[in-house]
């Protein structure tokens, strides 16, 4: 957890938790600071005192979600100690499937937020870019640890499959999108041996 997140007061934690639910369920632009403050049981002044702006709050919401995602992925992969190194990247797809079943009825929070935040300097856009870069780097590390050929290219392909499944699954057009992406990823890993 980032140092900023670790130092949040109980009221700030409550604001962030409420904002996260409201932003994810309704969209960032559809949720105003008045709704966040009243739902969290604080004043708008308290919200601004703790976060400074709605933009900062959005950035922290996405950063917190990213921290939770990273922890979930690492935990899933680390539990897979009996899995051969060449198969460990597939555990990321298992993590995604579980995450989506438990937490994402509206799809990827980062993709949804990206569509709402056109300004590249927005704190939320910075958090989104950091999340996607981390995922690519993590996949590259797993591929390197497995000793597979061309880790940069392979990690990029795995990220594309992962992101495609993340966006496609909640729409429901392609049944078992994550499982299908995982099967394609398996073929890529086999070919890279």
UniProtKB/TrEMBL annotation:
InterPro entries: Homeodomain-like_sf, HTH_TetR, Tet_transcr_reg_TetR-rel_C_sf, TetR_C
Domain HTH tetR-type: 9-69
GO MF annotations in UniProt: DNA binding
Swiss-Prot/TrEMBL keywords: DNA-binding, Transcription, Transcription regulation
Alphabetized Gene3D superfamilies for the sequence: Tetracycline Repressor, domain 2 (1.10.357.10)
Domain of life per record: Bacteria
UniProt xrefs under PROSITE patterns: HTH_TETR_2
DNA-binding stretch(es), residue numbering of this chain: 32-51
PANTHER family the UniProt entry points to: HTH-TYPE TRANSCRIPTIONAL REGULATOR YJDC (PTHR47506:SF1), TRANSCRIPTIONAL REGULATORY PROTEIN (PTHR47506)
Identification of the protein by name: TetR family transcriptional regulator
Organism: Amycolatopsis antarctica
